[in-house]
Structure of Class I SAM-dependent methyltransferase:
Amino acid sequence: MAFVRALGRLVRSEPEPDLSTLPVWMDPIELSQVRAVIETLAPKRVLEWGAGGSTRELLATCPFIERYVSIEHNREWHGRVREIVKDPRLELHLVEPARPEPPLPGAGGKRPTTADRELLKAWRLEAEQNPELMADYVALPRTLDEHSFDFVLVDGRARSFCIREGFALLRPGGVVLLHDAQRPEYHEALRAVGRPVFLEPWKQGQVCFVRKPDAA
């Protein structure tokens, strides 16, 4: 019930995210759902794959977080996050893939083509299927001095692998949360680690979370 009350409160009162510096690529309802989960859990140690507006937003609104480890694969975006987010609790890591991700269609002012879109789509799908493409990105948390977490946010690349790895690194009672959970390529990994809870409504990307059972 605490989660339901927190969700209702945040859905009613959550302000529009500040898109002027570092966008939060979630609909406000989805950001409210993430906030409801994290406010209810009140984690001290957070792990995130996929840095960006969520990094800025959660650090700005969650004073109970003591350590926030974020892993990004894109060098340019990593630099932008580092420039904007100055919170000392943030540990931001750049881990590039074994083979570079194709540029976004239309990047650099070029006219986007169907071939560009298909190339990017194929690379991202391979990242969900080929463990070697982003192996170092997925494995980075285990190289840290402390590698157990209360809350894991998966919102980057190779999400199927990050879900499994993030769940393994959770403390008992912790939560792994996935954005864009409506995509079927993530469902096998979600069900492999526990009982996924898919939240409604959603507009841009569905939020889903799995809680790790408490220790016996």
Observations:
- The beta strands are 45-49, 67-72, 90-94, 149-154, 170-179, 197-198, 207-211.
- The chain is about 40% helix and 20% strand.
